[in-house]
Amino acid sequence: MDFIWMIPFLSQFFRFGITYDNVALNKPAWLQHQHPKYPQYGAERAVDGNKLYLSISGGQCTVSSGGYSTAEWRVDLGGVLSIHHIFIQYRTDFRVWDETNILTSYLLGFSVYVSNTTIKEDGVLCFMDKSYTRKTIPNNFNISCRQNGRFVIYYNNRTQLPLPDGYSVSAESDLCEVEVYGCSKSRHFGDNCSTPCRQNCLEGRCDVVDGTCLGCIPGYT
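The structure assignment produced for this chain is given below.
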């Protein structure tokens, strides 16, 4: 895990005892290119709260079909919510997570978006892997993403040739769990999400930690 990157993130997460809900738990999810042999391991497996058995046989992970140049998964939070961070656990098949595990090659290059629509380009890019290798990419990921949105979208592609060293030929999204932490009550922020966003915030949207308006209604700054 990227230790240097995680220290400021964890200190921000735990300061003042602030806690957030997993607002993705058991929410509707969608998977591009569902594997035809494993229809029972659909998109919903990544938001069922189970991440103990990280293999196909464990039945707790999504299983996508190979042979495609793009892979996408998303969860519908049911409304526009304030998000603090996103946790991702990828399939390991119970093998050591390093360059000897073929699954590391499928995770390389992935990105995560938060959007108000099902179209990732309508939203905000929270993270894109541009530097990890099969030896260095962590599993699992905690991604800081203080945004407001309804859909969290995992995306990967193999469309830009030549592919970087170590990348799989096809894109897959075999996610075991995606947890989205934030406020289950919209237009709120702060400790236990108990403080309403200010009235001058555009559409009532504000930062999940400090309440800064993410845009202001006309006449306010």
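Interim note for the steering committee: Residues 188-221 form one domain. The first strand starts at residue 21 and ends at 22.
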